[in-house]
Amino acid sequence: MTHAVSSHEFTHEAPQALPGNGRAHGVALRSSSIESRASHFQLRVPSFGLHPHATRRGSSLIAVFWMITVMGMVVLAGTKALDADTRGTRELRGRTFAKRLAQMGLEVARHPAVKVDDPLLHYTLPDGSGYDVRLTTEEARLNINVLLASGDKVLLPRLFASWGLNPEAASAVIDSLRDWVDEDDRSGLKGAEKRDYQRAGLAGLPHNRPFREIDEMLLVRGMDLVSELRPDWREWFTVLGDGRLDVNQARPELIALLANVPVERVMPLITFRAGKDGAENTRDDNRLGSPVQVAQLLGVYQPKTVELLTRWVQFAGPIKRLESTGRSGDIRRRLVLIVQNQQAIWRGELPPQHGS
Asked: Among 28, 160, 258, 260, whose Cα sits 20 to 30 Å from the Cα of 268?
């Protein structure tokens, strides 16, 4: 008895018994029984093709992996955004606190009873934040308007040369500064007037009036080069005062510039100002009182130099300058208040000084 064989199964067929042979007949009976059972026995042969359900399960697993990857990227991006937002918030809070502390310092220093060595000018909280205030005079700087109006041909060329400008570039900057403050539209030899600024796309310049703010000087042609060579150039100029330099407050470099001597020659004068304790802005400070005394400490005796000192120096500028630096963590904010006769005439914020 034979069964059809498919690609997945086959049947076993028993041999026929020989007639007249009992043993064979017994074998035949047993074979017949085996055949009967074998007819129901099928051997399964494995198929090597992928089942459709297995394929779908593999695709689903890959999709799950992709979704895990995408979700991980989303979480990472969110974490970075949150971290940036946290740092931004922390910085904003630090800047706010630093500014408030600087304002506190200005209000303390503004009181007429506060002197240059008053402990109230320095304040520190337990977390390290606080303020430091420095009292000086606005006349410790060069008045750019007075220099330009006087036709000065000495101090500005010396100053720009000490900053690294070559004579031609310095002359061009000085002429452009003069053209900015004069009332006509005739440009100097190397200066710049309206047509020059118009060609540069800066219509409406120059203002043809004295500078009202120090930052206004940045609009003058050539001052970008000065700013690049000397980023702290603002610390050297003012638009207030009568133009005479307060030698009891001025930095050594400005005094050296005025006397046309190396900065090393100014050190005896600075030592005299500092008094016995060697620190300026303390109670034992000495004050200079005459151009002759200044000349002697500088070791200059040429009549022209003494005449220049007499013309350009003073010993107690009436305009007070209060600089308060507030600090919170690594953040610094420097506020400036300029006072004359207890009346505020200018208030603003400047970049923190190096090392402050």
From this structure: 160
